[in-house]
Specification:
8 strands; alpha/beta; about 60% helix; single chain; two-stranded antiparallel ribbon
Length: about 550
Amino acid sequence: MALNPRTWFTRKTLRKDAVAGLILGVEAVPDGLAAGLLAGVNPLAGLYGYLFGMVGAAVFTSSAFMAVQATSAMALVVADAELGSLPDPDRGLFTLAILTGIVMAVAGIARAGRLVSFVPTAVMTGFITAIGVNIVLGQLSNFTGYQAQGPNRLLKTVDVLIHIGQWSLPSLVVGVIAVLVIVVLLPTRVGSLGLVIAVVVGSVCAVILNTWVQSSVVLLRDLVDVPRGLPAPVLPDLTAVPALLLPALSLAFVGLVQGAAVSAGIPTKDGRPADANRDFLGQGVGNLVSGIFQGMPVGGSMSGSSLIVQSGARSRAALFIAGAVMAAVVFVASDLVAFVAMPALAGLLIVVGFRAIKPSRVYSVVKSGPLQTAIMAVTFGLTLIIPLQFAVLVGVGLGVILFVAEQSNRVRVRAVRLERDGRLRESDPPAVVPPDAVLVLQPYGSLFFASAPVFERQLPAVSRESHNAVVIVRLRGTDQIGLSLVDVLRRLAHQLADADSSLKVVASEARVIDQLAAGGLIDDIGERNVYRGTEWVGETLRRAYADALAEIDARR
């Protein structure tokens, strides 16, 4: 259990955990600063979020190697949260992290982990692809040294492109050097440490340019005072809660979806599937600790989790060691951290943005059909244009619509024929209900309100020639139906009655029979024409079939 400290540290794994923790801790310093830069807040808030969020979450998560950090998607939601409109933006950021943590923790306690699986791949592909594009576009100002103007990232990008003459050549040089170092080192054995090297090399170049050429490449110390030591705890701003509730819900959703991907994709210590609900709770605690100690919202990071696994971690002790390494950097090397160049961090983020765009996933969605492609395209477009907290909620809504549309189109009606030897044979239903015959219809799929029109279109027509017939609708395996489906059955019953025919229903669930009664069908056709199924498959259908044959003979 994650809550037992005795399972966190063992002598057998300590050396490998120390190496993995050292690598993650060093790499997380520029990453944390870049996350704060991406969110448009104090870069130190990203650093503190990485440190305190990761350590706080590691106490509770089921996934021993889940690194809870400030992800790019969550940083962009923070950037669109309009914290600048609050009386105290910094305290508003910490309050937002605490609110996000509360929502995540409640989701974990309420065991809402399975709900994440209802988010369609088309929605997440469009969202993640747009996030990658947004990351790239959002860093062009820091990369070029030109502060763009505009209400959203697309218009700011246009502003950057039409003012090429105002770009800062030294800033551009520093950013390009950082990108080249990352591109060269990532495929080598250096791996993710290439991100650290790139920021160091870019920052050294910036200091040289500022000193020798008298350029004005922006450094971290030009934006904020980098303190020596860890931040003091703060209390949330309760007056800002109403304005921050929607962004907190969006952040929680994005963080939980990404965390669920980590839970599914990162192995656990014992090889068993991770408990997504405990991971939700852990991410919630991570956000609470992050917010209290002046950090930004955090969530499960696939890149950080993959890095610590690939570095050889054997237990969650690696996460605590990574936190200790980050704390040591803040205490010992804060003066050096102050010289981090903003164009170098922007170059790092631009590479991250490009790597987030997966053409193969986009192509797989396109191949799956026009509906999924349209959902992906709409999600992508909205994520680029409107604030991300609204785009996330729209994406959830589109996911619900997509689910309803797919489920309603999966309804299929088959005709069942009872053979003399007792076997049941299925075939396509006839176009018209035949006269003087028993027709058994078996619907398959989800019978709810949205599937009612699809179900009705597949029913055989009732014509003047359909006299003295009995139609049996078999609802075995159906645990509920909507009133819209009951209305369809009522219309069918009335049409059959007008043709001197009748309708019978076989249902195996008491709830379905109650719904038939509530919708008025039993009053229309009589209780004797509704048959309650038993555990013996086919027994009730044969009894209804025999009664139907007797009715036909009697009417003759």
